[in-house]
Amino acid sequence: MGEDVTRTSIDRSTGKGALVVLFLVTMIDMIGFGIVIPFLTYLVEDLTPESQVANIGLWVGLLMTSYSVAQFLFAPLWGSLSDRIGRRPVLMIGLVGNTVFFTLFGLANTLVIAFVARFMAGVFNGNLAVARAYIGDVSSPQELATRMGLIGAAFGLGFTFGPFIGGELSNPAERWDFFRGTLFETHPYLLPCFVASLLSLFSLAVAYRSLPESLPVGQRTISEPQPWTSSMAHMMKNSVSMLKSQNISLIIWVSMLFTFGFTIMHAVFILYTEMDPVNGGLAFSEADNGRIFAMIGISGIFTQAVLIGPLSRRFGSRRLLSVACVLTGIGLVLVPYTQAENAWIQILLVAFLISVGNGIFQPSSSSFLTRVAKANGYELGVVMGAQESLGAFARILGPFTGGLVWTLTVSRAWPFDYHTAFHLCGIVMLCAALLALRIPSLDEKESDLPLAEE
Predict the structure, then answer these.
(1) Residue 9, by phi and psi: left (phi above 0), alpha (psi -120 to 50) or beta?
(2) What are the pLDDT digits (tens) for 159-188?
């Protein structure tokens, strides 16, 4: 009885307050992911031997991939662990890891240290899947789309502040006398990473004080402790089973394709924008790139915080998936066709298409997947952990593929030149859109939002 009362209390009153804390947690996670984007290419250039300069694109892709490799391996473990011990402790463990490894990345003076720091940050960054499971715990079906949209807005806000912080605070000794002769001069990318660590520490304190547990003891999975290797094998098996599930496999496949196409851009966008205009680029600096990604984030925030609720009620989450893939794909294909003379106008228009498409896709896919999982009796932690793990697998392939394609084509003639990686993004998004059209609607009795047209 006490657990039921606690559950009701969380659902009706504490749930809204918990969303504020989850908003912070998700935002900090995305700051950690996005903070490196504006300066990663420049950091790799600083740390790469002259003999490897021709492979800069590949090294950028590999360094980005190290983070996603860790997420792919460990996200299902965190999701399953949250089903067993609760969401709250898992979220706080992730924040502790973020705090430590943000700083270590900023102190890296070799590619090996940078790889280790990013990998370990990915190990502890399972918060997104657990945060989504938390929302599923405390939300009614009618609230899911809007609440997933709020967390999506936090995702976008982190993706806004992360690149902006990374760009504006890079190389502080070159911009402000105060930092000359300090550790921040010898480690030009430490300052943004240190700020991210402080934000993560603040989020940890807020979560410790104000975040209630959403999963009552009586509803947790009871299992004996298993060796790490056994747990990992079990989680991998769960991920594969989700891909084979008749009910949710198409949704996860569409999410994987979308993430794959979107993250190809992460590796090649700045490789393009930093290029000399003589070669077709825009000659952007770290700060310029950070501002572009900030604009993408701002548009995404507006989309997810304001538009996604009405759009979901009008068209349904399932139908929005294809639209989102098409919009994002058009934007990605157009990136390398911007011209230096009108760079800011053109790149902002392209960024708007990308951000609106991504802003529609993320909460729509999460909301529809949650509804299907609940309707079919799946444990949300396992489902969301599998989705995040397989999404991380797509984020492994995306930057690596982008970096490899860039390295192989950048010096060639059109159409197989620096445009090629962006063309590939468009092809992948088209495949995702076509596959999304095949996703079946929920049965009428299970359609718990006013989406009769689904």
Answers:
(1) alpha
(2) 788 888 899 999 898 888 889 889 998 899
